[in-house]
Specification:
The chain is an alpha/beta fold. Helices cover about 30% and strands about 20% of the residues. The strands form seven sheets. An eight-stranded mixed beta sheet has the order 23-24-22-21-16-17-18-25, sandwiched between helices. Strand 9 and strand 10 form a beta hairpin. Helix 4 packs across helix 5, helix 4 crosses helix 6 and helix 12 packs antiparallel against helix 13. The longest helix has 20 residues. The chain starts with a helix and ends in an 8-residue tail after the last helix.
Length: about 625
């Protein structure tokens, strides 16, 4: 009797209830995610992975595999990685997956932006919205959401310390890793994130970033992982091949003068298969990407002799042993560039045109590698600059003059404890002519020297733009001096390592840090030009001075010239810095750093002139404005 009642009850329940089907990540997103215009202006509405097929498949492959613990993605600038990380958070809320969640990004402002995006996604997912609506308003702020069975923290501390004291974490998302600050003695963000949730069985860590340099966190973590590549079938030989910018072919798109016809490049760029060397156009990209897949590449190149012997003895089926992974189990890493992208401006022709415009400019190449290819700038070892290198670049002109009609004259002063060391340079079609240098004990002397400028064929050319290093403890003094002269004079501040957000930028600095508007005190601000210090050092020492022989022979590059009556003491200050690899005495970490031997202040002043020239060129192109 009991068995009959149990069977009837089970039949009745089955008619009105079905267990929820466990959908894969991508299908769940299709069914539950709706994008507002604020999230995706051109593709608002029901989610589709069509525009972002590789990243959607990567997230599914990682998230739906219980054996995977860490995903590292070195990505191009518009990859939708952050969107897919937010989708997974919504999925966990909707499905009631237990465990807390931490989303770490580099600034508090960005954390708030992420919080607003998450609020919109939760509100537009019906089942998740029902759960969130039952929670009191005090428990669901922008940055902390206390939901049933979990707490979601969104933090913009930008430091690995943001991950401390967060118990029971089952999912950690680390956004823009290479922009996170590192403090001496503190673990790196990915390392610390991997330690979170050790007490949680199905824990996941997702870390992604546009890379900066090859010693940055994201690239080193990528190299340590499985190094997944998205491969697609060649339309001709059907082999599964990667798609790289280096495979683009546009050499047939030249006009009668031998110059590239950019309209033809845009329309006629081809990709060459590395296997069959056949070429094919962009119109076949959709079919290739849809048929593509992620494959790991980080294998040992050779099988150990012992394994070879075992294979020969029939140790495996057919006497064969597969490749041995180099990566730790559970660690998946991948790189994704725009070659697989369908966003506007990312066709193979678009990439080819942009690569032509980048040319050999190290600053533009840095940005192209990071933002378009998801690759870092490689910091190769650099030979030391010696006196002979600088002496070889003496030009046929004397101090205070220049041998060409300059496009722009720039003046830069490096702030010392009791003086300023300055240099003044003229630029003609990208070539730099160092005209003069010196030491000024007063601010008036600095202004007068900038006003005097350089002499070309008897005419004085006043400096067009002037920069002054903020000078550490003299920053307030520098800002006060510069304020009435802006924008002719601008303060400057170099950034290094993980502080770098962009090659050039502007930051608004308060002139007097102690001024308090609430007390009726005037709060004045001045725009400070910030720059990638390492990048411009490489341009000065490697790309201009050490490449001087090639430039003199007219082979390549952009020149730098010094006056024929240059002092040896000035030249020696251009030989004081060298890029080396080892333990950085300032941070105690192993990596690339600039070793300084003796005074390098005049070298800094010349470097600042290069920066001011680059900022002026960017401003003229409309790419770098004061209000940015």
């Amino acid at each position: 009797m009991l068995e009959q009642l149990t069977a009837e009850l089970a039949e009745s329940v089955a008619r009105v209830w079905r267990p929820r089907e466990e959908l894969g990540f991508v299908q769940w997103c299709r069914d539950n995610i709706t994008l507002r215009e604020s999230e995706s202006p051109d593709y608002a509405g029901r989610y589709t992975p069509a525009m972002v097929t590789p990243v959607a498949r990567l997230f599914e492959q990682f998230l739906d595999d219980p054996t995977q613990r860490l995903l590292v993605l070195s990505k191009c600038s518009q990859s939708s990685a952050s969107s897919h990380a937010l989708f997974e958070i919504v999925r966990r809320v909707e499905r009631g997956v237990p465990g807390n969640i931490v989303y770490v990004i580099h600034s508090a402002e960005e954390a708030r932006n992420i919080g607003h995006r998450l609020d919109a996604l939760l509100a537009d997912c019906v089942r998740a919205a029902d759960i969130v609506d039952e929670v009191p308003a005090d428990d669901k702020s922008t940055l902390v959401k206390r939901l049933p069975g979990k707490t979601i923290w969104l933090t913009g501390a930008g430091s690995a310390g943001a991950l401390a004291s967060k118990p029971g974490v089952s999912l950690v998302v680390v956004d823009e890793v290479d922009k996170h600050k590192l403090l001496k003695g503190e673990a790196e963000t990915i390392e610390l994130a991997s330690q979170r949730g050790k007490t949680v069985g199905d824990r996941k860590v997702v870390a992604f970033s546009t890379p900066t340099t090859d010693d940055g966190q994201i690239w080193r973590a990528f190299l340590d992982g499985s190094r997944m590549e998205y491969v697609c079938p060649c339309p001709q030989c059907r082999e599964m091949i990667p798609l790289e910018v280096s495979q683009l072919r546009w050499g047939h798109c030249k006009d009668l003068a031998g110059e590239y016809d950019l309209h033809r490049v845009l329309e006629e760029t081809l990709v060459e298969c590395p296997e069959c060397h056949g070429t094919f156009p962009d119109d076949g990209k959709r079919g290739m990407v849809d048929a593509g897949e992620w494959r790991p590449t980080n294998y040992h190149e050779e099988v150990d002799e012992l394994l070879e012997e075992e294979a020969g003895d029939g140790g495996g089926e057919g006497g064969e042993i597969g490749p041995r992974p180099r990566w730790q189990p559970g660690v998946m890493s991948a790189r994704l560039g725009d070659m697989h992208s369908f966003w506007p401006g990312s066709s193979w022709g678009d990439l080819a045109v942009e690569r032509i415009k980048v040319g050999s400019d190290p600053l533009k190449l840095h940005g192209f590698l990071n933002n378009r290819e998801g690759k870092p700038l490689k910091q190769g070892a650099m030979a030391a600059v010696e006196l002979r290198h600088v002496d070889a670049l003496r030009g046929a002109y004397r101090r205070g003059s220049v041998p060409v009609d300059p496009d722009i004259v720039v003046f830069a002063a490096d702030t010392q404890d009791a003086a300023w060391k300055w240099a003044i340079c003229a630029f003609k079609e990208g070539d730099c002519y160092v005209s003069d240098y010196g030491i000024s004990l007063s601010w008036r002397e600095v202004m007068e020297r900038a006003r005097d400028g350089v002499i070309y064929e008897g005419d004085e050319r006043m400096a067009n733009i002037c920069g002054v290093d903020e000078g550490g403890h003299r920053a307030r003094e520098v800002r006060k001096n510069v304020l009435p002269l802006a924008p002719w004079f601008v303060p400057m501040k170099g950034l290094g390592g993980l502080q770098v957000r962009s090659v050039l930028g502007w930051r608004s600095h308060q002139v007097d840090p102690d001024a308090d508007a609430s007390r009726g005190q005037a709060v004045e601000t001045v725009e400070c030009l910030t720059f990638d210090d390492d990048g411009f050092k490489r341009e000065l020492y490697r790309d201009r001075i050490l490449s001087g022989k090639k430039q003199r022979d007219g082979l390549a590059g952009r020149s730098i010239w010094f006056p024929i009556d240059m002092d040896e003491s000035f030249a020696r200050e251009l030989c004081a810095e060298q890029l080396v690899k080892g333990e950085n005495p300032k941070t105690g970490k192993i990596g690339w750093y600039w070793r300084v031997k003796g005074s390098n202040d005049f070298g800094d002043a010349v470097k600042m002139c290069l920066i001011l020239h680059a900022a002026s060129a960017a401003h003229l192109r409309g790419g770098l404005k004061m209000e940015d």
